[in-house]
């Protein structure tokens, strides 16, 4: 097969998958997706030698897999296939995990780590940062309510491909899995006085309007992060990180290394 035929075939495969597959934007998203078992049928790069150099330096565990999957294409071809070319010159398409399997993980009766609930989030980048945090702490998953798609390309980019390291789904409030629900609210009990159980649902309101009335009614307890007077709020991802850190320390189980 000639180089031109190889490029043409890779581009045809990309276009055939792009409507349904998950865009992995950049080397780091690809690295994480492969590490956590994603099925990746298409990888394109405008500089394969540079991509493999990054793999040698940062991800030798998946270097051979990247070498096998990656097809070098001209930079202008890659730019025409993705919304915004990543500085690493790498883009890939992965299959989305089976929804039924993801819901089964979230619905486990004896979860060993909390699930994070983002109640009607609005900011795609914030949602991605939360998923990245949840993956880092070994949370069971991240659930969003409302209209935001947690698998939107911008969310996946913000999470650096770590959707595949935790369960990520969108549900309505009345579809949330069982478990004690602790909702973050300025009027709640100081989180430092609360031990968060492993099977907790940790709920955070939207950046603009806070908790919805429906979720507040569903909550078993309102809890609050310590905050200096006259400071109105923390960034959403910061709040999630602080809460997961409190869970990991108060439960006696440090974040995984």
UniProtKB/TrEMBL annotation:
Keywords linked to the UniProt accession: Methyltransferase, Transferase
Record CDD domains: SpoU-like_family
Any Pfam family: SpoU_methylase
Entry's Gene Ontology molecular function annotations: methyltransferase activity
Any Gene Ontology biological process: methylation
Gene3D superfamilies linked: 3.40.1280.10
Domain (tRNA/rRNA methyltransferase SpoU type): residue spans on this chain: 115-244
PANTHER family named among the record's database cross-references: RRNA METHYLTRANSFERASE 3, RRNA METHYLTRANSFERASE 3, MITOCHONDRIAL
Name of the protein this chain belongs to: TrmH family RNA methyltransferase
Organism encoding this protein: Streptomyces cavernicola
